[in-house]
Amino acid sequence: MLAFGASSSKKSINKQLATYTANLFKDAKVELLDLNDFEMPIYSMDKEKEDGIPQLAHDFYAKIGASDLIIISFAEHNGAYSSAFKNIFDWMSRINGKTFQEKPVLLMATSPGARGGSSVLEIANNRFPFQGAIVKGSFSLPNFNDNFDAEKGITNEDLKKDLLKIVDSIEY
To answer: Cα separation of 25 and 29, whole Å?
Structure first.
């Protein structure tokens, strides 16, 4: 299982949510990724022609290919993906337009606000099937600071039940 927060923040609340969720799966071997380990030049056709596709894009793509389930929790930047995630995504799409290689994916988002990253989650839910993702579930955690504790995880019982229902429904 591969899990990551689609953010380059060193204290990413989305990475915390992805990590927490990955650990809800019984007997899962989890690899947590940090997008900071995959920093590449900003994608452009000129860069690709000059230097080719960066090895880090190939490495990230290979990690997706080696996974049985991918958990992504999106940071929402101005209603869309973070630039760190979008850049990795753009480079990987040059390897294969079916970036997610027909792998099952759990899409998530959280934010300090009441909408919980719902705009970026909607974008991902609509876009990722075209990129080869088999979307198995989607979950938004609103008001992260009120509903999540670093040691306890999700503290709102209704939201926790909603997430557990999704986790229990996913076979990988």
So the answer is: 9
